[in-house]
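Deliverable D4.2, example record:
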Amino acid sequence: PSLLTLKIITVKIAVNPLIHLTSLRYAGDQLVIHLSKNMAELKYLNELLSAAAGILDSAAAEIRDIPLNPTKENISTIGKALTLIIDIQLQIYQIDPKLKPEYLKRSSPYPAEINRRYGDIVIKDADLCDLKMYQEAISLYEGFISENPPEFFTNMARNRISKIKKDYSV
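Output generated by the structure prediction step:
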């Protein structure tokens, strides 16, 4: 997909409810954000980008759970838009380090390998569920759990297994 357009009537930011994100468009390698007010202040821009990222993250989960085919490509498109948002936020944090969230100031307690491994399973899960191979998707998570990953990942895997069983009557 070459274009992802999300029309958002209003995203109200708690700090300033008068600021609205009216349109977010991803085309190629450009992210275009339309605001209803000139946003010169980095703090407000960062809050808008965080809100947009949250909406996109929720949309990706919905695409996976519905599923909306081609699931993998649709989620990948949203992932690209999220990457662009994060790139902009990293620029903001370089200009004003006070805006950088605490969780980005400290290193992850989980090794990069476990994050990558779980991410690969989520992608394979989407592909298998697209093919109606629900038990195989569950088996991926069960195998992952048997490797005794950190509790955080074990809980996510168990929750996904429960969701597959519930949504697809497995």
